[in-house]
Fold:
Amino acid sequence: MPQEIFLLIIVGLFIIGFAVLFTFVPVMLWISALAAGVRVGIFTLVGMRLRRVIPARVVNPLIKAVKAGLELNINQLEGHYLAGGNVDRVVNALIAAQRANIDLSFERAAAIDLAGRDVLEAVQMSVNPKVIETPFIAGVAMDGIEVKAKARITVRANIDRLVGGAGEDTVIARVGEGIVSTIGSANSHKKVLENPDLISQTVLSKGLDAGTAFEILSIDIADIDIGKNIGAELQTDQAEADKKIAQAKAEERRAMAVATEQEMKARVEEMRAKVVESEAQVPLAMAEALRSGNLGVMDYMNIQNIMADTDMRDSIGKATDEDKKK
Structure:
C-alpha cells in the first residue's frame, strides 16, 4: 500500500513537472522550428520567456523569413520586438520587397516600422502606386474669373525617404499651391479651360515631392469648373464703398451748409435787432431836438405828413400788385 501511494506521488509530480515544462517552455514551437529547418535552442526560448518576449511572435516570423530565403537571425527579430516594433509586418515587408526586386535591408525596414509608418504598405505602394485625390482647389485668373480644379496625384513610396519624409497632407498642400499659382498666372480663365494640362505640367515641373516620402509620378486634372466672377464682385464692392464715401462727404457738406444757413439767419436777426434798436433812437432824438429848439413844430408836422404820404403810397402799391396777381 505505501509503495502504491509513493508511485502515485511520483507519477503526479512527473505530470506536474511535464505540464510546467510545456507551459513555460514552448516545446511545440521548438519542434515546429526544427521541422522547418530553423535552429532555435530550447534555452533561447526559455530566455525569451525570462525577457518577457512572446516566442511565437519572433519564431514564427523567423520561420517565414527562412522559408522565403531571407538571411535573418533570431537576435535581430527579438531586438526589434523589444524595441516595440511589429516583427511580423517587417518580415512580410522584406519578403514583398525581395519578390519585387526592391533593395530593402532589415535595418531600414525596422527603422521605418519604429518610426510609425507601415513598412509593408510602403513596399506595396512602391509596386502599386497610390492615387491621391485633392478637393476642389480654387484660383483666380487675371481676368477676375474664379476657376476650380480637382487633381489626381499618382505617387509611389520612396523607401529611402520614409523616415523623416513628409506625408500625404504636404503633397496635397504643395499641389494645391501650384494649382492656385498656375491659375493666377493665366491671362484668361478661357486659357485654363482650353488647356487644363498646363496646370499639371507646370505643377509637375516644380519638383513638389522634394523632402516627402513619395515620388510623384503624374498629376492629372480630374475636373475643372468655373466659379464666381471675383473681379466683378471686387469692383462692385469697391463701387459700393466709394458710394458710401461720397454719400458721407455729401452729408457732411449738407450739414455744413445747414449750419452756415442757420448762422446767416442768426446774423440777420442780429442785424434786425440793431435796426430796431437804431429806429428806437429816432423818437428820442426828435424829442431832444424839439426841447433844444433845433426842430420846430412845423418841421415835425411836415415829417409826419411825409410819413403818412409814404404809408399811403405803400398801401396803394400793395393793392395794385394784388390786383395784377388776380
Q: What stands out?
A: The CA atoms of residues 11 and 277 lie 146 Å apart.
